[in-house]
Specification:
Keywords: ATP-binding, Cell membrane, Membrane, Nucleotide-binding, Transport
Helix content: 25-40%
Largest sheet: 6 strands, mixed
Protein name: Phosphate-transporting ATPase
GO molecular function: ATP binding; ATP hydrolysis activity; phosphate transmembrane transporter activity
Number of domains: 1
Radius of gyration: 18 Å
Bound molecules: adenosine-5'-triphosphate
Shape: globular
Strand content: 15-25%
Strand order of the largest sheet: 6-7-8-3-9-10
Number of strands: 10
GO biological process, one term: phosphate ion transmembrane transport
Pfam families: ABC_tran
Structural class: alpha/beta
Order of helices and strands: EEEHEEHEHHHHEHEHEEHH
Length: 255
């Protein structure tokens, strides 16, 4: 599924956060959204995930203007998205129950909802399951551990597995490794790459430039109240068109 945001304007009360923001994520593509703290990365991901409606602009899932559809259709489209937040926020249950959560949701869908989703965006065969997803993040041997006993890094890996087990078309990751050590970060980054190889499109918000460089195919630089530049990763790091991108990468531009 292709996600496309077109000339989005959004903000809170009198504050404009995003102005004229356009961005797309193609199947199997990893797009990093980089920018300093408070610039609107979370706001943009929440809009892409349909948690909030943009004040202006169009959001398309596979060419469907999502905010022009019925609430039920929108719910169906929403279910094609997996999201992982900075804070893992697991349920008070075992690793296995946490990873299986999305599957329970999916099993609870009525035949009618299943048909609607299939008609709108197609339904994959659901090849992934919770165990496979936990294996991807190296936790398949820890099924019975309780979430409360996990380290922060392990918890975040379970949160990632939970999103993956849901068999999404697109993964939206909000600073998924900002609190993690290099080993846990590497596990998540490998899992992101594996997801993209399976055709899942990924948008990852990060203020870690090196992470963007390691995982992304394309990078969008969010500064001020908009995306100042979006280009393939090499161009952003080696030959950016906007001088502010160079300054931001070099750590000189702290917004
Ligand atoms: N619910 C809200 N109500 C009012 N203002 C908000 C709300 N959510 C975010 N903001 C403001 O919008 C701006 C963008 O916030 P956002 O969380 O999207 O930035 P960010 O780039 O994700 O930051 P960080 O990297 O620190 O997570 C900030 O100034 C923030 O204070």
């Amino acid at each position: 599924m292709t996600l496309r945001a077109d000339t989005i304007h959004h903000g809170y009360a009198d504050t404009t956060v995003l102005e004229n923001v356009s961005l797309s994520v193609d199947p199997g593509e990893i797009v990093a959204i980089i920018g300093p703290s408070g610039v609107g990365k979370t706001t943009l991901l929440r809009l892409l995930a349909l948690f909030d409606r943009p004040h202006e602009g169009v959001l398309e899932y596979d060419g469907i203007d999502v905010w022009a559809t019925s609430q039920q259709e929108r719910l169906a489209l929403r279910r094609r998205i997996g999201m992982v937040f900075q804070d893992a926020s697991l349920f008070d249950a075992s690793v296995r129950r946490n990873a299986e959560y999305g599957l329970h949701v999916r099993r609870s869908w009525s035949d009618r909802l299943r048909r609607e989703i299939a008609d709108l965006v197609g339904l994959r065969n659901g090849t992934s399951d919770a165990l496979e997803a936990l294996d991807v993040v190296g936790l398949a041997e820890q099924l019975d551990r309780h979430a409360s006993s996990l380290s922060g890094g392990e918890a975040q890996r379970v949160a990632f597995a939970r999103a993956l087990a849901y068999d999404p078309d697109v993964l939206l990751l909000d600073e998924p490794t900002s609190d993690l050590d290099p080993r846990n970060t590497a596990v998540i980054e490998d899992a992101v790459r594996a997801a993209s190889l399976r055709g899942i499109g990924v948008a990852i918000a990060t203020h870690d430039m090196n992470q963007a460089r390691r995982v992304a195919d394309r990078v969008a630089v969010l500064l001020g109240d908009g995306i100042i530049e979006v280009a393939d990763t090499e161009t952003i790091f080696e030959d950016p068109a906007d001088p502010r991108t160079r300054k931001f990468i070099d750590g000189e531009l702290i917004y």
